[in-house]
Amino acid sequence: MGLMLAAILVPFLFTIDLDSFEGRVVIVAPWALMFVLLLLSWRRARRHRHVTTAISAAWDHAQLEDWAAVEAILPHLVRHPIRSDADRGRTMVLLASLAERKRSYDAAAHIYERLLRERIGDAPLLQQAQLALASAKLRNEELTDAVDLLDRLQQIQMPASLRAVYEVIRLHQQVFMGHYADAIANIDDRIALFRRHLSTRAGFAYALVAAAFHRLNMPDRARRYWNDATMLVTPNKILERFEIARDVSQAYPAAEHPL
Amino acid sequence: MTQNEASRLIRTLRRQILFASVWKVGILALIVVASVGAASAWTTPEQSKMLWALSVASAGVWILFVILGLRQTREANQAAVYIATGRLDLAEQQLRTAALAFNLHRRGKLLACHNLAVVAHGRREYETAAALSAGVIELGQGALRGVSRICRILLADCMLELHNPEAARRAIEPIPLGDPGVPLSEQLLLLPIRLRCDAALDAYDHILIDLPNKVRRAELLDSPKAAMCHQILADACDRSGRRSEADFLRKRAELYHDSAPADARKELASDADD
Predict the structure, then answer these.
(1) Residue A7 lies in a domain
(2) What confidence score (pLDDT) does residue B263 get?
(3) The domain boundary residue, chosen from A112, A127, A158
(4) Model-level pTM?
């Protein structure tokens, strides 16, 4: 804006001989310059709009678990620099999620670490990234790092919806490391938290609860939670994300999905 | 803000937007004519200088209004933060000022007006919210498609609260559910309202159209809304004799949220909207 104003006003500072051809050019030149600057600003705004739309579309596909569509959009997105921090943060989270889907947990952890180190994105995104990093490390069997990170996250204040996600990752860690009694301690509070804040994703948490009960040889409760889990999420999706629940899926019947 | 005040505000905005359009065309014409005249060979040097000064002054006025417009948009967005933190009085005060300030561009004004409608909806002043939303839809024709869509959804919700499901359906009719052009976040706002509309109008056949996709989207809602949508879908399946689907959807609804009696469902949805 300052440059535009300067472009218009600078010729005023000089005595212009308007009779001459040069004088006329001096009058037209600032407007031409302003036109070029406006054109460049418009192009930049259009690029920003295009990037924001593409990220939103990819985010929507990720929510609908259409990962092929996400994979198709991302290469176009990362081809050019993304100026906005928020957009860059969201793109990196999408990339990391895609890596997790392909079971490249070390790549996902690397992306989350970079996001956190460079503090790209807003506070809620960074908190989500911390939780996702703990989960990626757990899945990559970097257990000491994962437990340390989870212990640190336990001390941090976070919204109840993120606390529910934290509890799922903690539950996964406890079942993964064989701490089944810890996994079912305060189970009613945990279930209430999952139910209130995780909506359909609570199904994954119920599957982990079922795994804990199954290994503690409490088949009635394991069966009940496996039924609840598969009522919300299909067994295939649960096993895709939590291989640890495979024996549970073989031991108890899943809920029928007529749709 | 009362319904009358909201209607007055919309009338003022309509006048201001018309006036601003005339100003906009006038300033642009002045810039073009004065700068072409200044550069033309048929004007004397004194005339050229005068025309040039005129074009610069017009451009200055234009830039001033652009800066004011950006400030207005920023104020409208800042008020959204006040709304999110529950400081509705502060938000209303700021939004009224932003909506009434003169500006060449309608975007800032309409955003402020939309946020005022959200404030009124948050206070359960549904008549006021409906008047403001209808105003934004009317004044934002063509431009501001996203804001207009959200206003339509808000208007439909207000109409449902005011026991006028026909008006609610008319408001959301132009927004196709499941259209890839409509962002998922808006589809998720739309789904519970559309289902409530159809249920209130006993259009249960309509509810069952594209059932799997509706269920897929209902799964992405937060727990109380997901429960409500599943319950309505279950009722629709029941009425069309699809018992197994109805049982499945009802069991899911119970898993999402404590079961609510049918009369309380609307209340629940309204709370969830807030």
Answers:
(1) yes
(2) 46
(3) A158
(4) 0.83
